TrEMBL record:
Keywords in alphabetical order: ATP-binding, Cytoplasm, Magnesium, Metal-binding, Nucleotide-binding, tRNA processing
Native organism: Virgibacillus kekensis
PANTHER family hit by this protein: TRNA THREONYLCARBAMOYLADENOSINE BIOSYNTHESIS PROTEIN TSAE (PTHR33540:SF2)
Superkingdom to which the source organism belongs: Bacteria
InterPro entries reported in the protein's UniProt record: P-loop_NTPase (IPR027417), T6A_TsaE (IPR003442)
Entry protein name: tRNA threonylcarbamoyladenosine biosynthesis protein TsaE
Length: 151
C-alpha cells in the first residue's frame, strides 16, 4: 500500500473522516496537508481537533504560523504558507518531537524540516462540495493507521 483515497461530498464528511483518523493517532504524530486555498485543509484540521478532544474552535493560523490547542493530546496547528520564500526554522523539531499532534498546512514549503515518518494528505477540489482526499503514509505506524481508517 502506498496511497489510499476517499471522496467526501460535504465538509461534514471531511470532518468526520478526520475525526476517525484522529482517534488512531499517537503523541508526536505529524500530518501534512496539501491543497489549494479553500480545498479543506483547515476543515480537515477541525476534525482532527474534535477527535483528540480539543474543545476550542480551530481557525486558520495564517497570521501566526503555529497555534497550540489543549486536548486529550495537544494540537499544534501550523500554516506555513508565509514561509514559502524563506528557510526560517520556527523550532519545528520541538513540535514534531513533542507530545502533541502536529498538523501542517502547506507543508511543501518546509519539507527540509519534516520528519521521515509522517502522514501526507492531499486534498483536491472535484466540485463545489466534493473533495478527493489522498493519504500517503510514510513509515509502519501510518501504514497501519491508514489500513485501519480505510481498510
Ligand atoms: P483551506 O484551509 O484548504 O484553505 P478551508 O478548510 O479553510 O480550506 O475551506 C474549505 C471550504 O470549502 C470551507 O468553506 C468548507 O465548508 C468548504 N467545503 C465544501 N465542501 C467541502 C468538503 N467536501 N470538504 C471540505 N471542505 C468543503
Ligand atoms: Mg487553511
Amino acid at each position: 500500500m502506498s496511497k489510499r483515497q476517499i471522496k467526501t461530498d460535504t465538509s461534514e464528511e471531511t470532518i468526520r473522516l478526520a475525526e476517525k483518523l484522529a482517534v488512531l493517532l499517537e503523541p508526536g504524530d505529524v500530518l501534512t496537508l496539501e491543497g489549494d486555498l479553500g480545498a479543506g485543509k483547515t476543515t480537515f484540521t477541525k476534525g482532527i481537533a474534535n477527535g483528540i478532544g480539543v474543545s476550542r474552535t480551530v481557525n486558520s493560523p495564517t497570521y501566526t504560523i503555529v497555534k497550540e490547542y489543549e486536548g486529550e493530546l495537544p494540537l499544534y496547528h501550523m500554516d506555513v504558507y508565509r514561509l514559502e520564500d524563506s528557510d526560517e526554522d520556527i523550532g519545528f523539531d520541538e513540535y514534531f518531537n513533542g507530545k502533541g499532534i502536529s498538523v501542517v498546512e502547506w507543508a511543501q514549503f518546509i519539507v527540509e524540516y519534516l520528519p521521515e515518518n509522517r502522514l501526507d494528505i492531499k486534498i483536491s477540489n472535484l466540485d463545489e462540495n466534493s473533495r478527493m482526499i489522498e493519504f500517503y503514509p510514510h513509515g509502519a505506524h501510518f501504514k497501519t493507521v491508514i489500513a485501519e481508517l480505510i481498510g
